[in-house]
Amino acid sequence: MAKIGIGMIGLGGAGGWGHFPGYTDIPEEAKIVALCDNVPARTEAKARMTGAKAYTEYEKLLADPDVEAVDITLPHYLHARVALAAIEAGKHVIVEKPFTITVEEADSVISAAKRKGVKLMVAENTRFVEAYEVARKMLDQDLIGRICYAEAYIGGSEIPRLRDPNSWNGKVSLAGGGVVMDSAVHSFYLLRWMVGKMKTVSAFTTKFMDELPIDTETNAVAIFKFENGALGHVANSETTEHPWTEQMQLIGVNGSLVVDMLAERPLQLYSTKRKSSNVTMGWSPYGSSSWEEPFIYHSGLEWKSRSMKKEVQHFVRCIAQDTQPLVSGEDGREDVRVAVKTYESVKTGRPVDIY
Length: 355
Prior knowledge:
This protein is of the alpha/beta class. It has helices spanning 14-24, 40-50, 58-62, 79-88, 103-116, 130-140, 159-162, 172-175, 179-194, 303-321, 329-348; strands at residues 4-9, 30-36, 53-55, 69-72, 92-96, 120-123, 147-155, 198-206, 219-226, 231-237, 245-252, 255-260, 267-275, 289-292, 352-353. The protein starts with a strand and ends with a strand.
C-alpha cells in the first residue's frame, strides 16, 4: 500500500505531542514529508527525526507535490484561511478543533472540500477516546433507556499560559473566544454524539482571575435542552488546579453511565435492564441489576494523546480506503454553531434557540 504524504502546519501544542507521533507510529501507512512552523527550532528538530522538508511559510508547503494531506494545528483564527488554501491546492485536510471560529467560515471550508473532492476531517479526539466509544456502544444496546439528563465537565489549569501576554489563546481576535471555543466544543460534540441535537442554551461565563492579561473567559457553564426533551449541563474551566480531565454522566430511565478520566477504570454502568454477572450482587441493595466497570486500558496521563494518535491514523486510512471520516466538517460546524449561540446567551442574559 502506498504511503500517504503528510504535511504538518503547526507543531506547537497538540500538533507536536498528539498528531506528530500518530503519524510516525504508522510508518507503513503514512510519511511526514513536510513540516511548517513559525518557530524554526520546532520544525528543524522534527525534520531531523523524519527526514521531512522544513518550511516557515505554509504556502510553500502547500505547493510541495509530495504533500497529499495537510494537518492544521494553528491559532484558531487561521484554521479557515489555511484550510481553504490547502483545499484549493488539492490536499486532503484535517483541522484541529475548533473547526473555525464562525459558522460562515465553516460553511466556506465544507463547500470548498466538496467542490474539490478532497477529504475533510475535524480533529475532534473525543470520538476516539475508548471510554466514550464503549459508552456509545452501551447506549446502542439500550442499557440505560431514554436519557433524561446529561452532563459534561472539562477542566484544568491554563493559568501559566494565560499569564503570558504574548499567548494568542487569551485574545478573542485570535482564539475566537475563551474556554467555550477552546474546550467546551469537545463537550458539545460529546453530548450531541451521546444524546442528540441541542435545541436551546442558557449560559454564563466569567473571567475568574482579573489579573490575567486576557480578554477571553476562563470559566463557563451552560444548560441545554435537547430535541428529545432531555436536559444537559456543560461546565468548563481553565483555572481549576488539578490534572486536566474530563467527566461525563448520562442518566437514563433505566440506568446511568459515568465516565471519569482521572479514574483507573474510567467507565461505570448501572443498569436495571440486564442481570449482573457478579454473583455477589444478589445481596446488594441493587438486587440483580447490573453495576459494572468495563475493563478499559486507561492512563489518566495518556488517554488524550492516545486518542489524538487514533484520530490522525483514522484520517490516513480514510484517504487510503476512500471512506468518510467519523468526524466531518459538518460535525465541526455544528459545534461552532453551539459555541456561537452559547456566547449569544451570555451576551443577552437569556436562553437562546440554537436552531
